[in-house]
Amino acid sequence: MNETEFQLSLTEFSFERHFDERVAIEWMQENWSKSFVFCGLYAAFVFGGQRFMRERPKLELRKLLVLWSLSLAIFSIIGAVRTGSYMFHVLRTSGFKQSVCDQSFYNGPVSKFWACAFVMSKAPELGDTVFIVLRKQRLIFLHWYHHITVLLYSWYSYKDQVAGGGWFMTMNFTVHALMYSYYAARAAGLRVPRPCAMVITATQIAQMAMGLAVSALVYSWMQDGNCPSYIDNIVWASLMYLSYLLLFSSFFYESYLKRSKSKVSKTD
Which residues cross the membrane (predicted)? Predict the structure, then answer.
């Protein structure tokens, strides 16, 4: 990317320029605990919905699922490009340490809108599970646990504008851009090569490992006084990312490595 192209990537669109992040942050400081209400209703639907559908025929909802996944894919792709361009700008001008500790992702040009959009999107993303329940597909613990904890942590962290958020947002947008594009293609009936699913899960594992690393760096650099965060936030982030790392690694092994070994054994 040459200098002109890079400057264009940081040019704000009108809706980004006029977005008032102060109002959004103040709202979140006053209302972040409502995320528990969303999660409570979500948990009730997860278990109540499965019970409700037990004796009922599954719903196809394929066209609606394509539109849902495609919408989230487009949103995630744009979010990854916008936050990624700002992340590259910080890395390029201030270095890696500043990219971890910088709070400007919450109020900087380009990124301020997408930081708020990121945390707010965690509520409607709960809708992923609606399709699984109504289509009577297998709902694993990792799926609903991940949705609940990401929503709670994202809203909890945005109100305090903690260090590390830029990396967390950029990584998640990027992984979701791949993941929802894959879901949209599958829902549309396209035959997606199996290695694509493996790559997506591998990127999720890498994301969790990087999340742990960023949390550790925030704790280390916070002692110097220039990496604003809180001990309780770092503890929750570390526990969350560690649990994700273990669960996604287990999922990868069970879904791809163990099945491959079973097929080899049957062939032998």
Answer: 35-53, 65-91, 141-158, 164-185, 197-222, 234-253
Residue type at 116? C
* pLDDT one-digit tens code per residue, 15-45: 999 999 999 999 999 999 999 999 999 999 9
CB 221 within 8 A of CB 97: yes
Distance of alpha carbon 198 from alpha carbon 181, whole angstroms: 14
Query: What's 227's DSSP letter?
Result: S
Half-sphere exposure of 250 (CA within 13 A, CB side): 9
Record the tokens describing residue 30, joined without a space: 């006053």
User: Which pLDDT does position 261 carry in this prediction?
Assistant: 56
Q: How far apart are alpha carbons 158 and 37 in whole angstroms? A: 17
- In the chain, where are the structural domains located? 3-267
**Cα 239 to Cα 234: distance, rounded to the nearest angstrom:** 9
Q: Which phi-psi region, left, alpha or beta, contains residue 88 (left: φ > 0; alpha: ψ -120 to 50)?
A: alpha
Between the CA of residue 31 and those of 20, 48, 154, 237, what are the distances in Å? 17, 27, 13, 20
Contact between 214 and 169 (Cβ < 8 Å): no
Angle at 7 between CA 4 and CA 8, to 5 degrees: 85
Show the tokens assigned to 189: 């009936």
147 is catalytic: no
The angle subtended at Cα 240 by Cα 235 and Cα 242, nearest 5°, is 95
Q: Which of 18, 89, 143, 146 is catalytic?
A: 146
d(CA 155, CA 98): 23
Residue 44, helix vs strand vs coil: helix
The pTM assigned to this predicted structure is 0.91
Other C-beta atoms closer than 10 Å to the C-beta of 239 total: 14
